[in-house]
Amino acid sequence: MLAANAAHHSVVLVGCHWQDNSREIMNTRRSIFRSALAVMMAMFYFNAAAALADGPALQRITMATFTSADLAGVERDYSRWLGYHVRERGVVSAELAEAWGASGAAGKRYLLLSSEPSPEVFVRVIESEVAPADWLPLTTWGWNGIEIIVDDPVALREQLRESPFRVIGEPAPLGAFPTIKAFQVVGPSGEVLYLTAETGDRSKSILPPPGGPVGRIFIMVVGGPDIDTLLDFYSSRFNFVRNPARMLTVGVIKRAQGLAEGELTPLATARLAERGNLIEFDGYSKRTRARPFEPGQLPPGIVSTTFAVADLDALNVDWIALPTRHEGLAYRGQRAGTLRGPAGELIELIETGVTAAR
Questions:
Q1: Rounded to a whole number, what is the distance in angstroms from the first to the last CA of the chain?
Q2: Could you tell me the pTM of the whole model?
Q3: Least confident range of 47-51, 101-105, 202-206
Q4: How many CB atoms lie within 10 A of CB 63?
Q5: Looking at residues 152-171, what average pLDDT do you find?
Q6: Where are the beta strands (DSSP E) in the chain?
Q7: Dihedral angle at the C-alpha atoms of 116, 274, 59, 112, nearest 10 degrees?
Q8: Which of 37-41, 60-64, 109-113, 170-174 shows the lowest mean pLDDT across its residues?
Q9: Which of helix, strand or coil describes residue 123?
Q10: Local structure of 177: helix, strand or coil
């Protein structure tokens, strides 16, 4: 604002000398140009600051979607071992498949599951063919992890010992947050789950309360070959604060990708508008690749993350298809649209029409 005011006064003063000689006229024109540029820059920075003051455009995570060749098995295993129960059964509409750029998904059966503490945050499973034999979790680009808040990771790990969920990372505290403990598993359909708890004072934690043994999704993990490309895309499209990446040893990634000792993974996070909702960005090594899938079909593994937003029309994004209204428990007749992120990930947005609670 100070720059804008200074620029304004310069224009006024310049105008007082408009009748002087040609050299003064030339200097005046230069002054006008500099003043106008100063005004434009001031407006730009003011608008940028105003945008950041509005906060992230993504309000909260409402759903994670993965594909499976065995819906009945997913229902059985998630219900028995994680306490996630089916809230809706249906088939994918042609309009929804078109929105994803996956016409082959039309008519496929799906399940919506959720926990008792957070029944409105869903895991959606869509039937598919058996995943390609050369596809391995945490080795391809896109959505690669669903992080769920839990009450006691040590007890849950023991409970899962006889389950089809394969542990790929034992319960351990996070280095920077020693009271946060997590472990990781691969589900029967190749989906990776991070199961995380606050073991300290939960009233002061950045994590949401679990509300029971297993709660809701609170972080989605996306990986790609260039973390800066990921961070630039999400910060510019969705008004995130662009936090710098840290170089870390991430055990599950190191083992999955066969990283050498001392070979680190760039990692960053961004908070959504509502507390207890985040995205983690992982920079993947050269040993990774684009996720394989057949044209017109959904890929194996975690397909998409669905976020709530206040206004779809306020976003500057390239939709796969124009947003439209969809029925069902996840959409409730609201408008939704989908875009593709820089790592090939599907980002689905549902319009709420209301500002997020901070």
A1: 27
A2: 0.85
A3: 47-51
A4: 23
A5: 97
A6: 58-68, 85-91, 109-114, 122-127, 142-150, 166-173, 180-186, 192-198, 214-224, 246-248, 265-271, 278-283, 302-309, 324-325, 335-340, 346-351
A7: -10
A8: 37-41
A9: strand
A10: coil
Structure tokens at 94: 């042609």
Separation CA 76–CA 38 (nearest Å)? 64
Tens-digit pLDDT profile for residues 211-260: 999 999 999 999 999 999 999 999 999 999 999 999 999 999 999 999 99
Residue 262 phi/psi, 5-degree rounding, is 90, -5
Helix axes of 22-54 and 2-15: crossing angle, nearest 10 degrees: 160
> Which of 135, 67, 133 shows the shortest CA–CA distance to 97?
67
Closest CA to 231 of 287, 279, 286: 279
Distance between CA atoms of 113 and 119, rounded to whole angstroms?
Answer: 8
Nearest residue to 105 via CA among 125, 85, 135, 87: 125
Distance in angstroms (rounded) separating the CA atoms of residues 84 and 73:
13
CA-nearest of 273, 292, 328 to 112 is 328
CB 67 within 8 A of CB 304: no
Q: Give the residues across from 113 on adjacent strands.
A: 86, 123
CA angle (152 as vertex; 110, 185 as ends), nearest 5: 45
Distance in angstroms (rounded) separating the CA atoms of residues 275 and 203: 13
The residue assigned the tokens 């720059």 is 3
Residue 37, pLDDT score: 41
Instruction: Pick the closest to residue 198 from 207, 190, 185 (CA basis).
Output: 207
Q: Name the CATH architecture for the domain at 58-351.
A: Roll (3.10)
SS3 at position 234? helix
Please report, as a single letter, which amino acid is at residue 132.
Answer: P
**CA separation for the pair 67, 291 (Å, rounded):** 13
Enumerate the CATH 3.10.180.10 domain ranges in the chain, comma separated.
Answer: 58-351
Pairing of strands 346-351, 335-340: antiparallel
